[in-house]
Amino acid sequence: MRTLLAAPLTAGWIEIRGEEAHHGRTVLRLAQGDQVRLADGAGQAASGVVAQVARDRLMVHCADPQPVADPPAIHLTIAAAAPKGDRLADLVRMLSELGVGRYIPLLTERGERDQVNAERLDRIAREALKQSRRGRLLAIDPPRQLAELGGALVVCDPAGAPARPGPMSEITVVIGPEGGLTAAELAGLSARGAMAVRLGGNILRIETAAAAAAAVWGTAWEARHHV
After folding, report:
1. What is the spatial distance between Cα 227 and Cα 223, in angstroms, rounded to a whole number?
2. Which of 91, 153, 209, 225 is 20 to 30 A from 27 via CA?
3. Cα Rg for the chain, rounded, in angstroms?
4. CATH class of the domain whose range is 72-225
5. 67 - beta bridge partners?
6. Over 80: is that where the pLDDT of 225 sits?
């Protein structure tokens, strides 16, 4: 079992309540003496031993926390129009598993979704953190307009050049809605210095493009980092 706790994680006795305790007691059927893995979503993790299982809590003795190395993709922000239905959950889950640092739901002219369930997305990101054993929780921002994006920008556009990630740096990859960004939106991004790239010869769904961008930049940076 991997349990996500509030930061900072510290050595010693830890009381676990709420959903994490319920899951450990009723789903995993943890018992005294079982080993657990604890994380705080802020880059620290530790092993622990269950000392007590009560109806509404677990008591765990935690060893000294250790830092979990961030993958290169932690420097990547994906700003993508939120797809409809459960596809948004898939997008958040994949970005978390791939180690992306931040997701921004993007508000665009052709977008079909301007609100997101922040609590549900946070829960999905937390579950993905535990499953993938990453150390730092995916940050999820409130929906933003294109004009609110800052820093170095890369926009996914079928008319762009093939994606060739440069050295590792803080960048934001912009992914439009179904039907793409409008000509005016693309022109506005270009005027702000955004580089237009394509991820392949086919038209991709939003969540597929987001995962592809995360994999392309993350693996390229990893290769450079380990040279």
Report:
1. 6
2. 91
3. 20
4. alpha beta
5. 44
6. no
